[in-house]
Amino acid sequence: MTPDYIIVGAGSAGCVLANRLSENGRHNVMLLEAGGDDRRFWIQVPAGYGKTFYDSRVNWMYLTEPDPGIAGRQSYWPRGKVLGGSSSINAMVYVRGQAEDYDDWEHAGNPGWGWEDVLPLFRKMETHPLGASHYHGADGPLHICDPEPDQHPLVSEFIRAGGEAGLPHNRDFNGESQEGVGRYHLTIRNAMRHSAARAYLHPARNRRNLQVVTGTHVTRVLLEGKRAVGVEILRGDKIESIRAGREVILAAGAINSPQLLLLSGVGNARELGALGIPIVHDNPAVGRNLQDHYGVDHYYRSTRSTLNNVLYPWHGKLWAGIRYLLARRGPLGISLNQGGGFFRTRPELDRPNMQIYFQPLSYLKAPPGTRPLMNPDPYPAFMIGVSQCRPTSRGSLRLRSTNPLDPPEIRPNYLDTERDVGETLEGVRFLRTLSQTPTMRRLVAEEIEPGPDVRDEDGLLAHIRNRGGSVFHPCGTCRMGPDDGGNVVDHSLRVHGTANLRVVDASIFPAIPSGNTNAPAVMVGEKASAVMLNDAETR
């Protein structure tokens, strides 16, 4: 059977595509995933992302090039290599971004992508604990939870401190306003991770017109002239070709989708020619416009018990595990990113430009290659971090070689603009303001990092450049926009200069949304599915 649609990548958008394109039974769909099945214990346990953070069986484990903006350091970028993609290994925070983000997308030459256009898609995709409203849906595939019953008591203290620092309590960052502090809503259902695979793919797996193939590495798109006709795959040690009747859709993420275009001859002709790759379409924008959120954390020793007290001793780990297995309650059943919010670093700004994160634990002393689930610090402590909502620095991605198994060269260019440096510095200064509120003064026994001796601008900038890191939101490398040489796909997500080839994932974001990127990636899958089904009906 020749599939009508070949989808490359079973991540947040790919799972949506597989469900929606096969839903009416009229189209044969093949979904190809390089990784394996997501039915693993530490994927389904919400707090288990600490265990998958460095697990090459489910994680691409990318490493960037040394970056001058962050003191020549490399950044580690985990990306999902499993059904569900990064939605199977992320922190499950559900944030859409600001309405203005999508209006900006539309104003950049992308009709149909404004806030009033995408809001119905967000409602369609979610079952939200606040119920149906202008802002939320109540019967969508993706279930969202309010984790308050299982959150650590320090989250309430953080919210109180935010109020003392001038930030209102916001119970819904996806409602009328994003500004303020509160509890993050999470993609969790019945104390289990509700990834895109669980929400969209598993309910569709038994359809006769949907074929899901795991352990299959797509090496390039097959093009006849400029028309996509299929893909070349590596399965085991065997190279095969698969033809597509209608379209090939790259949904492999912000790293793998541009890599595949480049390997297929769509990209900068000079760079591809130097590697001996035949040129199909010269487009220097492929792999450019790389964006990410760069975060900086402050660590505080606490006067009160934190999750460190629960998850550091062996008996605490045992009790947390028993509680989760028997009752689906406790810290293993929710994210460690429990509180946070959005604020303006200057009152004259018209909307928040900074995100804040609160975790009631710390892991400064965690062994290399581990994350906090079972390796927190041996004393009570917590973390508060900040990242810009809309950084202006832009990075790039290039091929190292023609070998599709070689990871690409990733250059984030963090803190490459004065604005990014200035706003991050303002965000870090706000953390100091927050730490001096009455509530925080009662909670903080000691600022561990950056430490009380770091006070002046030079010291804070050194801390930002030497200790900050990725918030793991790469996007923009196949930017959506008009065919003016600076974009990769049009507003229908068709690849400029080709036929029957689209990109559908976070790589198409013209500009990074103000917040976590998983919910927008799922929305892109919903939008693309509707566009493609409409195209199929009108042919």
Structural account:
27% of the residues lie in helices and 19% in strands. It is an alpha/beta fold and 539 residues long. It folds into 2 domains: 194 residues, FAD/NAD(P)-binding domain (3-Layer(bba) Sandwich), CATH 3.50.50.60; 264 residues, Glucose Oxidase, domain 3 (2-Layer Sandwich), CATH 3.30.560. The strands form 8 sheets. Strands 7, 17, 18, 19, 20, 23 and 24 form a 7-stranded antiparallel sheet that branches. Helix 1 packs parallel to helix 15, helix 5 packs across helix 15 and helix 12 packs across helix 14. It is globular, with a radius of gyration of 22 Å. The model has no long low-confidence stretch (mean pLDDT 96).
| Gap from first CA to last CA | 21 Å
CATH topology of the largest domain, what is it called?
Answer: Glucose Oxidase, domain 3
Radius of gyration: 22 Å
Q: Into how many domains do the coordinates divide?
A: 2
| Average pLDDT taken over every residue | 96
Helix content: 25-40%
In CATH terms, the superfamily of the largest domain is Glucose Oxidase, domain 3
**For the record, what CATH class of the largest domain applies?**
Alpha Beta
- Derived from helix and strand composition plus strand pairing, the structural class reads alpha/beta
Number of helices: 15
